[in-house]
Design brief:
Layout: E1 2-9, H1 10-22, E2 27-33, E3 40-48, H2 53-63, E4 67-71, E5 89-93, E6 96-102
Antiparallel strand pairs: 1-3, 1-6, 2-3, 4-5
This protein binds ligand 2BA.
Pfam families: CdAMP_rec
Organism: Lacticaseibacillus paracasei NRIC 0644
Protein name: Nitrogen regulatory protein P-II
Length: about 110
């Protein structure tokens, strides 16, 4: 059995939830925040049999889109020159960041 942690954009999370339900894949959804953009994203926790890992990855890959997003870096209030001005920079986010981990034990009490 494996534990899959999948961080996706909020915009993709509802469709991904539906796909998991249709495929009879059990998942838990967490509301999370990206450390860099400090914007909301969604993390799915999925416990799945080894032989279904590829199926889960395929669904995540097909559902999660790459998007361009703008972020404004924090302004440095101590600096005086124009170089301290904060201009929005374009960042590419997603499709999905996925971790696959081994599970030592699984219990349902
Ligand atoms: P954020 O940390 O908000 O990052 C959003 C996007 O900003 C990233 O997209 C990446 O394109 C860019 N980015 C992140 N850190 C950067 C930096 N130091 N310099 C320049 N650009 C940077 P993704 O790579 O698609 O990541 C989307 C979200 O997935 C991240 O949101 C974070 O919540 C999570 N994530 C990505 N890699 C991770 C990792 N190694 N460990 C844990 N969470 C991760």
């Amino acid at each position: 059995m494996k534990l899959i942690l999948a961080i996706v954009q909020d915009k993709d999370s509802n469709l991904l939830s539906s796909q998991f339900i249709d495929a009879n894949i059990q998942a838990t959804k967490l509301s999370t925040t990206g450390g860099f953009l400090k914007a909301g994203n969604t993390t799915f926790i999925i416990g799945i049999a080894d032989d279904r890992v590829d199926e889960v990855l395929k669904i995540i890959k097909e559902t999660s889109q790459t998007r361009q997003q703008f972020m404004t870096p924090p302004v440095n209030l101590d600096a005086t020159s124009d170089s301290s001005m904060a201009y929005p920079v374009e960042v590419q986010v997603g499709g999905a960041t996925v971790f696959v981990l081994p599970i030592e034990a699984f219990h349902r009490f």
